[in-house]
Amino acid sequence: MLLNDADCLSEHTVSFCKRKSPLAIATARLNQLATVLEMVRMGHGVSLIPAMAVTHNDRGRVYRSLEGKKPTRTIAVGWSAFHFRTKLFDRFVEWVKGSAAGKNGK
Predict the structure, then answer these.
(1) SS3 content of the chain, % helix, strand, coil (to 5)
(2) What is the DSSP string of 45-86?
(3) pLDDT tens digit at each of 106 positions of the chain
(4) What residue ranges do the domains of the chain occupy?
(5) Which one of 13, 51, 81, 104 has the fewest beta carbons within 10 angstroms of its own beta carbon?
(6) 2 backbone dihedrals φ, ψ, rounded to 5°
Protein backbone atom coordinates (compact mmCIF):
# COMPACT_ATOMS: atom_id res chain seq x y z
CA MET A 1 0.00 0.00 0.00
CA LEU A 2 1.39 3.39 -0.99
CA LEU A 3 0.31 6.97 -0.81
CA ASN A 4 -0.34 8.57 -4.19
CA ASP A 5 2.58 9.78 -6.32
CA ALA A 6 2.25 13.37 -5.11
CA ASP A 7 3.45 12.41 -1.63
CA CYS A 8 7.21 12.19 -1.05
CA LEU A 9 6.70 9.25 1.33
CA SER A 10 5.58 7.19 -1.66
CA GLU A 11 8.76 8.03 -3.56
CA HIS A 12 10.93 7.13 -0.56
CA THR A 13 9.08 3.84 -0.05
CA VAL A 14 9.43 2.80 -3.70
CA SER A 15 13.13 3.69 -3.72
CA PHE A 16 13.75 1.72 -0.51
CA CYS A 17 11.82 -1.33 -1.72
CA LYS A 18 13.54 -1.36 -5.13
CA ARG A 19 16.91 -1.54 -3.37
CA LYS A 20 15.67 -4.62 -1.49
CA SER A 21 13.79 -6.45 -4.27
CA PRO A 22 13.18 -6.03 -8.03
CA LEU A 23 9.57 -7.23 -7.68
CA ALA A 24 6.60 -4.92 -8.19
CA ILE A 25 5.51 -3.51 -4.86
CA ALA A 26 2.41 -1.33 -5.26
CA THR A 27 -0.97 -2.99 -4.84
CA ALA A 28 -2.86 0.26 -4.21
CA ARG A 29 -2.17 3.99 -4.22
CA LEU A 30 -4.20 5.89 -1.68
CA ASN A 31 -4.61 9.58 -0.85
CA GLN A 32 -4.26 9.61 2.94
CA LEU A 33 -1.96 7.89 5.41
CA ALA A 34 -4.98 7.10 7.60
CA THR A 35 -6.50 5.16 4.68
CA VAL A 36 -3.25 3.23 4.18
CA LEU A 37 -3.21 2.32 7.88
CA GLU A 38 -6.84 1.21 7.80
CA MET A 39 -6.33 -0.94 4.69
CA VAL A 40 -3.36 -2.62 6.40
CA ARG A 41 -5.46 -3.18 9.54
CA MET A 42 -8.11 -4.84 7.38
CA GLY A 43 -5.51 -7.24 5.96
CA HIS A 44 -5.27 -5.79 2.45
CA GLY A 45 -1.50 -5.30 2.41
CA VAL A 46 1.57 -3.92 4.11
CA SER A 47 3.22 -0.51 4.00
CA LEU A 48 6.11 1.56 5.29
CA ILE A 49 5.07 4.46 7.50
CA PRO A 50 6.93 7.13 9.45
CA ALA A 51 7.59 6.31 13.11
CA MET A 52 5.58 9.37 14.13
CA ALA A 53 2.44 7.73 12.63
CA VAL A 54 2.69 4.64 14.85
CA THR A 55 -0.10 4.33 17.39
CA HIS A 56 0.91 2.35 20.45
CA ASN A 57 -2.57 1.13 21.45
CA ASP A 58 -3.31 -0.23 18.00
CA ARG A 59 -5.14 -3.50 17.52
CA GLY A 60 -5.02 -5.19 14.17
CA ARG A 61 -1.65 -3.89 12.96
CA VAL A 62 1.88 -4.97 13.78
CA TYR A 63 4.68 -2.43 13.50
CA ARG A 64 8.24 -3.55 12.77
CA SER A 65 11.37 -1.46 12.64
CA LEU A 66 13.51 -1.84 9.54
CA GLU A 67 16.96 -3.40 9.69
CA GLY A 68 20.04 -1.98 8.05
CA LYS A 69 20.08 1.40 6.36
CA LYS A 70 16.69 2.97 6.97
CA PRO A 71 14.97 5.40 4.63
CA THR A 72 14.90 9.00 5.82
CA ARG A 73 13.30 12.21 4.69
CA THR A 74 13.63 15.86 5.45
CA ILE A 75 10.72 17.84 6.84
CA ALA A 76 10.37 21.55 7.45
CA VAL A 77 8.03 23.82 9.37
CA GLY A 78 7.29 27.20 7.88
CA TRP A 79 5.21 30.14 8.99
CA SER A 80 4.56 33.74 8.07
CA ALA A 81 6.66 36.31 9.88
CA PHE A 82 3.55 38.50 9.91
CA HIS A 83 1.29 35.95 11.63
CA PHE A 84 1.00 35.62 15.41
CA ARG A 85 2.66 32.44 16.75
CA THR A 86 0.80 30.75 19.58
CA LYS A 87 2.44 28.92 22.47
CA LEU A 88 1.05 25.68 21.03
CA PHE A 89 2.72 26.38 17.70
CA ASP A 90 6.04 27.13 19.43
CA ARG A 91 5.75 23.86 21.38
CA PHE A 92 5.06 22.01 18.11
CA VAL A 93 8.19 23.51 16.52
CA GLU A 94 10.26 22.45 19.55
CA TRP A 95 8.75 18.93 19.33
CA VAL A 96 9.69 18.72 15.63
CA LYS A 97 13.24 19.84 16.43
CA GLY A 98 13.44 17.25 19.22
CA SER A 99 12.12 14.51 16.92
CA ALA A 100 14.70 15.38 14.30
CA ALA A 101 17.40 15.07 16.95
CA GLY A 102 15.92 11.78 18.24
CA LYS A 103 14.92 13.24 21.60
CA ASN A 104 11.19 12.45 21.60
CA GLY A 105 11.43 8.69 21.97
CA LYS A 106 10.01 7.78 18.55
Answers:
(1) 35, 5, 60
(2) ------GGG--TT-SS----PPPSSPP---------TTSPPP
(3) 677 666 666 777 777 777 777 666 666 777 788 888 888 888 887 887 777 778 777 788 888 887 777 767 677 888 888 989 999 999 998 988 887 666 544 4
(4) 2-53, 74-106
(5) 81
(6) -130, 155
